[in-house]
Amino acid sequence: MSSGLEAVKALAAGFATTFKHLFRKPITEEYPEYRRQLPERARARIILTRDPDGGERCVACYLCSAVCPVSCISMQSAEREDGRRHASWFRINFARCIYCGFCEEACPTSAIQLTSMFETCERKILSLVYEKEDLLVDHGGKDKEYNFYKYTGVATQEGGKGEHIKEAKPVNVKSNLP
Ligand code: SF4
Ligand code: SF4
Questions:
Q1: How far apart are CA 58 and CA 64, in angstroms?
Q2: pLDDT in tens, 30-62
Q3: How far apart are alpha carbons 80 and 45 in whole angstroms?
Q4: Tell me: the pLDDT tens digits for 89-124?
Q5: Ligand 2 atom, smallest distance to 48 CA
Q6: Which terminal CB of the chain, N or C, has fewer other CB atoms within 10 Å?
């Protein structure tokens, strides 16, 4: 008997909730006319950013590619005459990307970043393969001031080894005996 009463009570509570909503003004967000502001850390379309000098940040280290759980990043590394590494081509297959953000976490130069831009749907699956020219932007994204080549331990036009910001002088690794 008591279980019967409980069932009726549960039913009544359910119907009361439904009834309450019958008289509420519906809240409809008319997308795409209305676009909700997404949180800054929302993870959607990926970009490749530049340092404050306008140089490409990506040094083609392959870390993003290695960490990507679905293997959707590929590239080819190259080196300029001044010692800067870069990707001669860089490709992301967004048809496979799960927007986990691991690539951004792994990137040592703040080059690869996820943005909140999510409107990238396509009917043709091959259109979801983005090349470097589709990914490279002309700004620093979330990390505008960072300049990897001012800190890095390679000899560049910015200076020799050990001459960059906060950089220790190189050690002779053969002298590091236990
Ligand atoms: S967000 Fe995740 S799945 Fe997408 S490219 Fe980066 S690591 Fe790969
Ligand atoms: S985007 Fe970052 S992690 Fe990926 S290859 Fe370039 S520098 Fe390395």
A1: 10
A2: 998 998 888 888 999 999 999 998 999 999 999
A3: 28
A4: 999 999 999 999 999 999 999 999 999 999 988 899
A5: 1
A6: C
Q: Which of 46, 47, 49, 64 to mutate to test the pocket of ligand 2 (most atoms within 8 A of CB)?
A: 64
Whole-number Å distance between alpha carbons of 66 and 74: 9
**Amino acid identity at 151:** Y
At 133-161, the pLDDT tens digits run 999 999 999 989 888 877 765 666 667 77
Taking alpha carbons only, the member of 121, 114, 103, 130 closest to residue 43 is: 114
CA gap 164, 150 in Å, rounded? 5
Longest dimension (CA), the chain: 87
